[in-house]
Fold:
Amino acid sequence: MKIALVSPYDFAFPGGVTSHISSLELYLTRMGHEVKVIAPASKEVPIFGDRFIPIGKPRPIPSSGSVIRVSISLHLAPAIKEALAREKFDIIHLHEPFMPMLCSAVLRFSDATNIGTFHAWDGKPGYNCGKPISTWMIKRRLHKLHGRIAVSNMAMAYARRYIPGDYTIIPNGIDVERFSPDVEPIEEFCDGKQNILFLGRLERRKGAIYLIKAYHEVKKQVPNSRLIIAGPGTRLRKPYEKWIRNQGLEDVVFIGYVSEEDKPRYFKTADVYCSPATSRESFGIVLLEAMAVGKPVIASNIDGYSSVITHGQDGLLVPPRDTSSLTHTLVSLLKDKKLQQELSKKARLTAETYSWQSIAQRVNDYYNKVLEERGIRL
Structure:
């Protein structure tokens, strides 16, 4: 099949949806399909070569405590029409299919079989963005969406408020070959200290401040420890660093942006991975990446994370925004090597059930199901 994977988000900027699409492209290509990615891009995306079709310039837009980077141009039609006429895709797989402007415009002009994957959870932009125009647009284009995938039950429940119909749950996947216990750690942090890792964007909803405040107490009880904060974002970093200085807190290291190549190595460097997000996580992809490397995980007990982790079996869950509980859980785990080993082993086994090879096959089977329902034979 000839397949287009369409992202509304800047493909030159790291994020859960773009990472999902990149992995899906790789494994669908390995299965013998001809796959291209269509997305806005703020700079060149060399990894795909001529398999990447850039359309639109993304703009950063604050939304729901985060920043989305999408194209808001009203003049994408000529480039979209030209690409679709040239490529003649069998399947157009849109991720957040009604997100303005690229995905919704591609759906408008597509004559292929159109599949949508819904990633967002409550509070994310998209379906209710730009009312009343967005409501009108969904009604006009809903009939052109032939199949619906949601990455979780939460994402499905949210999408159904705006886009009725039947959904198939196919979760995000993990590259268990790249995120492996066999990767090399970051050598400079292999000095005998126990490393707590936060890896994510420095946004309020990611909850890094709760981890920093918890670490202030953890450091007193586990002196031979370090907090590594990795991920993009500068607006909150300065006030975080000021708070750390004012408290005289040592062994907190800000790394900044981490490349996709180095992400597995940072997970390997950690003794504990911690994600204290406060809300609006439809799926715990970053948890699974840490778990695939065989690391014990502590995460907030929010819907998107509790769908991945079974508390006490393959990870530990704590109430969101609860610094006291987070402190207690971190200290208990850092002091219990046996528990670390047990959680690590079970975490890897859980992550393997989300391998991209398996997830891509499920997506492929769904493509064939929708084509068959439409009476199309390729």
